[in-house]
Amino acid sequence: MGYHCFSEKLTTAKAQHRCIWCCHQILTGSKYVREHSVYDGHHQNFAWHEACRAHAVAGWKDGADEEFISGNEMPFFALYQLECAAPTPSDRREGL
Ligand SMILES: [Zn+2]
Fold first, then answer.
1. Neighbouring residues of 18: CB distance < 8 A, sequence distance ≥ 6
2. Is pLDDT above 60 for 93?
3. Distance, CA 18 to ligand 1 centroid (Å)?
4. Closest by Cα among 14, 19, 43, 44 to 33
5. What is the distance in A from the centroid of ligand 1 to the CA of 96?
6. If you average pLDDT over residues 80-91, what whole number do you get?
7. What is the pLDDT of residues 34-55, one digit of tens each?
8. Three-class SS state of 41
9. Which structural domains are found in the chain, ordered by start?
10. What pLDDT is attached to residue 67?
11. How distant, in Å, are the alpha carbons of 86, 87, 96 from that of 92?
12. CA 16 to ligand 1 center in whole angstroms
Protein backbone atom coordinates (compact mmCIF):
# COMPACT_ATOMS: atom_id res chain seq x y z
CA MET A 1 0.00 0.00 0.00
CA GLY A 2 1.48 3.32 -0.97
CA TYR A 3 0.37 6.88 -0.88
CA HIS A 4 2.29 9.76 -2.32
CA CYS A 5 1.09 13.33 -2.50
CA PHE A 6 2.58 15.27 -5.43
CA SER A 7 0.99 18.56 -4.71
CA GLU A 8 -1.45 20.07 -2.33
CA LYS A 9 -2.31 23.67 -2.74
CA LEU A 10 -4.81 26.12 -1.43
CA THR A 11 -6.76 27.67 -4.26
CA THR A 12 -9.97 29.62 -4.79
CA ALA A 13 -12.94 27.74 -6.19
CA LYS A 14 -13.99 29.15 -9.57
CA ALA A 15 -16.70 26.54 -9.88
CA GLN A 16 -18.46 24.40 -7.34
CA HIS A 17 -16.64 21.24 -6.34
CA ARG A 18 -17.53 18.45 -4.00
CA CYS A 19 -15.30 17.73 -1.06
CA ILE A 20 -13.85 14.21 -1.22
CA TRP A 21 -13.93 13.93 2.57
CA CYS A 22 -17.41 15.08 3.60
CA CYS A 23 -19.26 15.13 0.23
CA HIS A 24 -20.57 18.63 0.85
CA GLN A 25 -20.16 21.28 -1.81
CA ILE A 26 -17.22 23.63 -1.88
CA LEU A 27 -18.72 27.03 -2.53
CA THR A 28 -17.64 29.12 -5.48
CA GLY A 29 -15.22 31.80 -4.32
CA SER A 30 -14.19 29.97 -1.17
CA LYS A 31 -10.72 28.55 -0.55
CA TYR A 32 -10.22 24.85 -0.96
CA VAL A 33 -7.33 22.41 -1.13
CA ARG A 34 -6.56 20.73 -4.46
CA GLU A 35 -4.69 17.48 -3.97
CA HIS A 36 -2.83 15.54 -6.66
CA SER A 37 -1.61 12.22 -5.41
CA VAL A 38 -1.15 8.54 -6.11
CA TYR A 39 -2.69 5.84 -3.97
CA ASP A 40 -1.82 2.23 -4.77
CA GLY A 41 -0.85 3.25 -8.28
CA HIS A 42 -4.06 5.17 -8.97
CA HIS A 43 -3.89 8.86 -9.72
CA GLN A 44 -6.11 10.99 -7.53
CA ASN A 45 -7.24 14.54 -8.12
CA PHE A 46 -9.29 15.61 -5.14
CA ALA A 47 -10.88 18.77 -3.85
CA TRP A 48 -11.05 19.28 -0.09
CA HIS A 49 -12.46 21.85 2.29
CA GLU A 50 -9.51 23.35 4.11
CA ALA A 51 -10.84 22.14 7.45
CA CYS A 52 -11.55 18.63 6.13
CA ARG A 53 -8.04 18.31 4.72
CA ALA A 54 -6.46 19.49 7.96
CA HIS A 55 -8.65 17.07 9.92
CA ALA A 56 -7.75 14.10 7.68
CA VAL A 57 -4.03 14.86 7.65
CA ALA A 58 -4.00 15.17 11.43
CA GLY A 59 -5.66 11.74 11.65
CA TRP A 60 -3.07 10.18 9.33
CA LYS A 61 -0.29 11.59 11.46
CA ASP A 62 -1.96 9.90 14.44
CA GLY A 63 -1.76 6.61 12.55
CA ALA A 64 -5.19 6.45 10.91
CA ASP A 65 -5.39 4.51 7.62
CA GLU A 66 -4.87 6.71 4.57
CA GLU A 67 -7.67 4.86 2.82
CA PHE A 68 -11.03 6.41 3.57
CA ILE A 69 -14.58 6.52 2.31
CA SER A 70 -16.25 9.82 1.47
CA GLY A 71 -19.08 11.02 3.65
CA ASN A 72 -17.13 11.82 6.78
CA GLU A 73 -18.30 14.40 9.23
CA MET A 74 -17.12 17.88 8.35
CA PRO A 75 -15.20 19.70 11.06
CA PHE A 76 -16.75 23.10 11.87
CA PHE A 77 -19.96 22.11 10.06
CA ALA A 78 -21.93 24.92 11.75
CA LEU A 79 -19.51 27.45 10.26
CA TYR A 80 -20.00 25.92 6.83
CA GLN A 81 -23.77 26.20 7.17
CA LEU A 82 -23.39 29.88 7.99
CA GLU A 83 -21.20 30.34 4.94
CA CYS A 84 -23.81 28.63 2.73
CA ALA A 85 -26.55 30.85 4.09
CA ALA A 86 -24.58 34.04 3.50
CA PRO A 87 -25.23 35.79 0.20
CA THR A 88 -22.50 35.31 -2.38
CA PRO A 89 -20.96 38.38 -4.07
CA SER A 90 -22.99 37.74 -7.24
CA ASP A 91 -26.25 37.57 -5.26
CA ARG A 92 -25.42 40.93 -3.77
CA ARG A 93 -24.86 42.44 -7.19
CA GLU A 94 -28.23 41.17 -8.38
CA GLY A 95 -29.85 42.84 -5.40
CA LEU A 96 -28.68 46.29 -6.47
ZN1 LIG B 1 -15.34 18.78 3.30
1. 24, 25, 26, 47
2. no
3. 8
4. 19
5. 32
6. 78
7. 999 999 999 999 999 999 999 9
8. coil
9. 3-95 (3.30.1740)
10. 86
11. 10, 6, 7
12. 12
Give every CB contact of residue 17 below 8 A, 6+ residues apart in sequence.
Answer: 25, 26, 32, 47
Report CA(50)–ligand 1 centroid distance (Å). Answer: 7
d(CA 5, CA 39): 9
The span from the CA of 16 to the CA of 29, in Å, is 9
Averaged pLDDT for residues 19-47: 95
Q: pLDDT tier at 28 (50, 70, 90 boundaries)?
A: very high
The torsion region of residue 11 among left (phi > 0), alpha (psi -120 to 50) and beta comes to beta
pLDDT score of 3: 86
